């Protein structure tokens, strides 16, 4: 199978996302395949702040990690929330947590995500990590199926994002990935999460990822063009600078409301708002009569027992709400932490 490039991107989110879905998965090199009985555990790691918005998402993610970790097919190892607020918080006893320092004041210039590569650099240097592989996740990830190790040796596994387009931004990419390093197609259309990667590879990439992120943020043209996905481009470029290319797995993750079925995918990413009228019709871009959007809960957790969406709403959105409801019903002190 081969990766088919999209030459033109249509205007609406639905059209852009659907164009990604027709592409097959990039096949891993045959010499990188592993036997069925070989088990390669990976450490599940995510970066987080001590803000209420981050905390409630981490609690839901950790709940579903525990539910799926020991099921058949899972190769999940231990779990770490890398807390880059610089001091312990009230979830230390609930979620395995490693505290690291934030960037010096002002260095992130209001773009808090720049703390992510710096957090991984510190964690990799200071923590004892038993597993050979690491999954870089995010608080708004929910494990919907047991996750195997999708990486193969020196080939990490990543999810391809339709909006990460290195070839269409060659002029900017070349500021950080010079021609002598190879063609721009060596820069994968990915971010740092979800990625499953060998620990020793990430130890090499992470400092470069941090430095490229800061350089991109300090370049006005790059900052304006890449915006909120700048740090994702930085990881893709940093990997390419080290000669690392990823196996692209579209089954790694789904993103409601654009992905309508959970199927055999592994992670549900609830980054997009889900807005519907009572006929079950998507009203993306305007508040729906029924809605679930994580950004509605910036100051504290969503309430328990959220109302289910109306008939006709895709299964993926229904599953999201049901999984949030199950987690909040079973996590102690949900409304008070």
UniProtKB/TrEMBL annotation:
Instruction: Identify the residues that the record assigns to the Hydroxyproline O-arabinosyltransferase-like domain, covering every copy.
Output: 42-335
| This protein's record includes keyword Transferase | yes
What does the record give under GO molecular function? glycosyltransferase activity
GO terms for cellular component: membrane
The record's InterPro entries line, in alphabetical order, gives: HPAT-like, HPAT/SRGT1-like
**Entry keyword Membrane:** yes
UniProt keyword annotations, A-Z? Glycosyltransferase, Membrane, Transferase, Transmembrane, Transmembrane helix
Could you tell me which PANTHER family the record lists for this protein?
HYDROXYPROLINE O-ARABINOSYLTRANSFERASE 3, PEPTIDYL SERINE ALPHA-GALACTOSYLTRANSFERASE
Q: What protein name applies here?
A: Hydroxyproline O-arabinosyltransferase-like domain-containing protein
Please name the source species: Abeliophyllum distichum
């Amino acid at each position: 199978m081969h990766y088919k490039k999209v030459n033109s991107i249509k205007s609406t989110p639905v059209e852009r996302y659907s164009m990604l879905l027709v592409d097959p998965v990039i096949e891993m090199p045959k010499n990188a395949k592993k036997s069925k009985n070989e088990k390669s555990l990976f450490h599940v790691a995510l970066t987080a702040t001590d803000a209420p918005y981050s905390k409630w998402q981490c609690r839901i993610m950790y709940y579903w990690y525990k539910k799926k970790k020991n099921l058949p097919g899972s190769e999940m190892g231990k779990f770490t929330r890398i807390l880059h607020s610089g001091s312990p918080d009230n979830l230390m006893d609930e979620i395995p947590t490693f505290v690291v320092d934030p960037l010096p004041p002002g260095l992130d210039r209001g773009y808090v995500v720049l703390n992510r590569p710096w957090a991984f650099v510190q964690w990799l240097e200071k923590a004892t990590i038993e597993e050979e592989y690491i999954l870089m996740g995010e608080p708004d990830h929910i494990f919907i199926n047991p996750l195997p190790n999708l990486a193969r040796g020196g080939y990490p596994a990543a999810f391809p994002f339709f909006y990460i387009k290195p070839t269409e931004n060659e002029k900017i990419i070349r500021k950080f990935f010079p021609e002598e390093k190879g063609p721009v197609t060596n820069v994968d259309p990915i971010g740092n999460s979800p990625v499953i990667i060998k620990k020793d590879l990430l130890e090499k990439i992470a400092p470069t990822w941090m430095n490229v992120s800061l350089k991109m943020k300090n370049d006005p043209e790059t900052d304006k063009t890449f915006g909120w996905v700048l740090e994702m481009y930085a990881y893709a470029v940093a990997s390419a600078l080290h000669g690392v290319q990823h196996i692209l797995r579209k089954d790694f993750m789904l993103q409601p409301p654009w992905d309508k079925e959970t199927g055999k995918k592994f992670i549900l990413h609830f980054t997009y708002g889900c807005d519907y009228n009572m006929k079950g019709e998507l009203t993306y871009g305007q508040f729906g009569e029924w809605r679930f959007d994580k950004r509605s809960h910036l100051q504290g957790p969503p309430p328990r027992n959220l109302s289910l969406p109306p008939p006709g709403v895709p299964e993926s959105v229904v599953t999201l709400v049901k999984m949030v409801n199950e987690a909040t019903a079973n996590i102690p002190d949900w409304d008070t932490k």
